[in-house]
Amino acid sequence: MNLHALKVFHAVARSGHVTQAAEELRISQPAVTQHLRNLEKEIGLKLVRPEGRGIALTYAGRELYALSGKLFAAEREIENRMSDIAAGKRGELTLAVTNLPGTVLLPRWIAYFKTRHEDVAINVITVNTREAFALLREHRADLAVIAGGWEQPRMKWEHLFDEELWFIVPAGHPLANREASLKEMMEETFVIREEGSSTRERFLSMCRTYNVRQPKIGMQFNGLHETIRAVGAGYGANLISAMAAREYIERGEVARVYVRDVELKRPIAICTAEDHPLTPVAESFIRLIRKKLREEAV
């Protein structure tokens, strides 16, 4: 069936006049009439008949009008849906995030995004840095938000800001809220993150940089808050994100150690795979993060 002729018929049936349909479609009246005749010939049924100065629908015409209305409503829905997807207003987004962004940053970023893009489904996968890069390479994540880490081949890296790393100890520890040397700090037994964690890699790299002994590891945890709570329970020391540790310090569960002449920072970054073009939704989410950070910086 000729869909253009069907659209012409639908416009005529809706208005009841060839003239109004011609004006709406911006074609001539003879063209409208010819389309109607061709459609009737194609389906082998009379669809319209003259009535006064306009037209009336036959039984077949009324049936076709009702069915074509559903068809063109579906067409409009398709157009609107595809337009929303292209604009990043609808779709799905898979984020690979390391522990700090996943627990401290992403909740408020996602809430802010969802208030403006309620038709976007978001899936968050919390992993360590090494696993986040693997998800990007395998195209199982649209983008990654990483604390620490390192630039990788065939990965786009957008630096957002730097965060501090603090040494912490149990609240009743002799070094709690005191200043100490790095050598003195490294006499402690440490609770440390799993292999693949950027915090662990930064810690070990710091030891090499400052030429001090490697940390004595007493416990290892696969998780950011698990390591802080282990210290809070009274065991060992830790080098940890300031943003993650601050609330525990404010509650008096752990305490900071001010290590002289050592200022440790690590980048927070958005990473994407060069061979995986961003979806409109992913682009919208990245724009929102940039906007949110600008607002928070003011």
From TrEMBL:
Domain HTH lysR-type: 1-58
Domain of life per record: Bacteria
InterPro entries: LysR_HTH_N, LysR_subst-bd, WH-like_DNA-bd_sf, WH_DNA-bd_sf
Keywords, alphabetical: DNA-binding, Transcription, Transcription regulation
Entry keyword S-adenosyl-L-methionine: no
Coiled coil residues, start to end: none
Family: Belongs to the LysR transcriptional regulatory family.
Protein name as catalogued: LysR family transcriptional regulator
Species, as recorded: Paenibacillus oleatilyticus
Lineage: Bacteria, Bacillati, Bacillota, Bacilli, Bacillales
